[in-house]
């Protein structure tokens, strides 16, 4: 028998990469390009923790000799390279920036949403606005009215600022929001902000995502049904699992 949980919230705060779209091929390609200039980069090690973290924070960690000016310019170059690498991959018959399972249906209730007040959903991403806008366009997602990008916050995920800002811009309390994320850093950000959290196993294993302490864990958004019949958004979560309590 299928396990179905029902919750209501006022707003859904989505991450972007790994949650709504997959840009993995482009990200790997960008790191490979950067390794030509910075040969000490260990891409395998970087990819273990880089997902869900702002590019500038990743480059600060892995290229510590960059000045602040260099960090800004290299961060912009990296994110443009993600799109370029994804396009090159598509030209070779591979994957580019693609919509993930269940996303189209999950966003459908917001297609004709209100033009003022709480929009019902927002994107809070660790990506820059330039890259995020390109990624959404390539994947066919309409840019939401509330859109928090890397440059909008002082401290990115796993700190709570991105989701606190998202809730504030939507005009709702964080306690009335659910954060949808695919990385440990993102889930920690949502928890720290005081939001409910839904973890997807689109980037990391179920074991890793359960260990984050997320309220719900599913494979992807195809296990989630969203409706917006009135003031409250109704969410059905199928086959979810709460992490087991510790000893």
UniProtKB/TrEMBL annotation:
CDD domains found in the cross-reference section: HAD_ScGPP-like
One protein family per Pfam: Hydrolase
Any GO MF annotation of the entry: sugar-phosphatase activity
Spans through the membrane: none
Top-level taxon in the UniProt lineage: Eukaryota
PANTHER family noted in UniProt: FRUCTOSE-1-PHOSPHATE PHOSPHATASE, GLYCEROL-1-PHOSPHATE PHOSPHOHYDROLASE 1-RELATED
Protein name: Uncharacterized protein
Organism field: Botryobasidium botryosum (strain FD-172 SS1)
